[in-house]
Amino acid sequence: MTHLSAHRNMVLSLVAVMAIAGCATSLRGNDTGAGSAAPVRVTAAGAAATASPDTSSVDQQVGSIDNQLNNIDSQLNAANGGLSSSEGDPAQ
Amino acid sequence: MNAGFLIRTVATLTVTAGLGLAGSVAVDADGTPAPSPSSVPSPAPHTLTLAALKARCNTAVQRRLGTLGADDTFVRQSAALTSADQTTLEGQITADQQELTALDRTIQGDTTIAQAHSDCELIVTNYRVYVMEDPKIHEVIAADGITKVNASVATLIPELRTLINNSSLSATIKAQAHSDLNDVTSKVDASHTSISGVTASVINLVPAGWPGNKVDLQSAHQNIRTARTDLAGARADVNHILQLLGE
To answer: How far from B35 is each of A85, A89, B41, B58, CA to CA, in Å?
Structure first.
């Protein structure tokens, strides 16, 4: 009897331990899921609040304007060269 | 505002000084190729053989054809020129090239030094390639370029306004950005005013009007520079707005 009782108690203890372990795993899993999801949402919300606006289209247009301004400068310098020069006399 | 005023003042002084310098140098240009008989260098007919004179004239023509060829490349490749101005300039360049080539043939066929000398002077007086045609072409390209940039910046203004309004910037920074944007608008308006009529004032200048029409070229040059200075200010404002938006 004593042997059977001890054996039964051991089995019950094992079941109890497994049940506790299972619950713990389940809870940890739930915690992990909730924990990982929450920071992502927080991060996403935080990024949206502080992100710079998308200026890529404007940047592209500004780059084109800079190129045009450089060309204007070249043309102005070339014109200035002519205004400062002499035609000369090829017959001389 | 003070910085803008300072930049405008310095730019104006620079342009004024530049034109003053150009004017003093160009006095030689006014005097050298005058078509009157008194400008014909008396030693030339006596010291140059007919063959040597023809060779000099040919060199003068070829040099001018080279300049016109380079100008033609600028005109054909320019994205700034309006279609009408491009057509006008190409027509003028082509006419000059054909006429100069024909004049060279005439000179090479001349049988006397006096005739060759007289024809050779036409290379200068009938075309004014260096002092009028070439700078005129560059000024038209530059002026049309300014007009195009004005339009580009004008397109940019509402886009920048939307970016500022939709940004998460503080009210203070937004106000600063809007102030910059107002300055961009003012500078583009000023540039538009400066460049208005510039192309029309020079594109049809002809050598027969030289040297009287030199002042038109100088005035156009100054107006283009003023407009360019305004656009430089507008560009700086845009850059500052983009910096604010990036904070």
So the answer is: 18, 10, 11, 19
What is the C-alpha radius of gyration for chain A, rounded to an integer number of angstroms?
41
- Confirm if B222 and A76 have CB atoms less than 8 A apart: no
Residue A67 above 80 pLDDT? yes
> Which of A53, A62, A71, A59 lies closest to B235 in space, CA to CA?
A62
Burial class of A60 by CB neighbour count within 10 A (0 to 12, 13 to 18, 19+):
exposed
**Residue B128 sits at the chain A interface (C-beta within 8 Å):** yes
Residues B125 and A87: beta-carbon distance below 8 Å: no
- A10-14, B16-20, B28-32, B193-197 — which one is most confidently predicted on average? B193-197
Distance from CA of B68 to the nearest CA of A (A): 13
Mean pLDDT calculated for residue range B140-157:
98
Cα distance between residue B52 and residue B233, in whole Å: 54
Chain A contacts in chain B segment 169-208 (CB below 8 A): none
Map residue A70 onto helix, strand or coil: helix
Question: Does A75 sit within 8 Å of B242, measured CB to CB?
Answer: no
ipTM of the complex: 0.80
Q: Which residues contact B45 (CB under 8 A, 6 or more apart)?
A: B53, B113, B114, B117
Over the stretch A30-50, which tens digit does the pLDDT of each residue have?
Answer: 333 333 333 333 333 333 445
Radius of gyration of chain B (CA): 24
pLDDT of residue B16: 35
Identify the pLDDT of residue B64: 98
CA distance A77 to B42: 36
